[in-house]
Amino acid sequence: MNWGYDDGRETVEAAAGPERFPLQLYQALVESTPLDGKVVLDASCGRGGGLHYLAVRHGPAAAIGLDFTGANIKLCQRSFGNSAAPISFRQGDAERMQGVEDGSVDVALSVEASHCYPRIDAFLATSARVLRPGGHLLWTDFVPTESVPELRAQLAPHFELVEDRDITPHVLAAMRADRGRRRDLVEQHSAPFLRPILLNFAAADDRCDTVERFTSGRFTYFMFKARRRDS
């Protein structure tokens, strides 16, 4: 459910299947942040595949998927409920993270989801609440380019920004590399009247607004890696 990441490296093996580029976005996000033996929370886990990949590959002590949509959680449980990886899923709001105890998480993730959050300030305050002192928030998404400085300012009360990247070129590269598969999925599994909308969402070609907003510079796809402040 994300547009993927491609910087020219095969950071997720091709054998991982058709979701390799979306998984590479997760892999890029956790690079330089050890997960082994840690408690990891994906604040908007969607269908759960990204978190499951990290749980299998990186050996966290626990991987918790949280999503606002109950249907997503049911799908995650059907798909990964019997996995040998230490993974669990629960329904919840990324701005409140119900049921997640204070200071119980080492690494919190948010992948291509926060553009749907009504209150970014609440999401950041809650992320700081559930993280242990020195814990990490790994956050990637797209916003209008003029909004990026505001996001940095909203981070500052709770987090020290340790990595700040514009990954727009790598997201565009993944869109282009993966567009044939996405186009086929739309054409095979959608009603004709929905196809123009879905093809735009799937970044089916460079004329789509989904692509043009990045190529024009109107939107930026950012990647922030931040450490919770101790005070």
What's a concise summary of this model?
By secondary structure, the chain is an alpha/beta fold. It has helices spanning 20-30, 49-58, 70-80, 120-130, 148-155, 168-189, 195-201, 209-215, and strands at 39-42, 62-67, 87-91, 105-111, 131-144, 159-166, 219-228. The protein has a single domain (14-168, 218-228), classed as Vaccinia Virus protein VP39 (Rossmann fold, 3-Layer(aba) Sandwich), CATH 3.40.50.
What topology emerges from the helices and strands here?
Elements: H1 20-30, E1 39-42, H2 49-58, E2 62-67, H3 70-80, E3 87-91, E4 105-111, H4 120-130, E5 131-144, H5 148-155, E6 159-166, H6 168-189, H7 195-201, H8 209-215, E7 219-228
Counting DSSP H or I runs of 4 or more residues, the number of helices is: 8
- Give the structural class: alpha/beta
* Biggest sheet statistics: 7 strands, mixed
Run of helices and strands:
HEHEHEEHEHEHHHE
Describe this structure in words.
It contains eight helices and seven strands. It is α/β, with parallel strands linked by helices and 231 residues long. It has a single domain, classed as Vaccinia Virus protein VP39 (Rossmann fold). The chain has a seven-stranded mixed β-sheet, with helices on both faces. The termini are far apart. The model has no long low-confidence stretch (mean pLDDT 95).
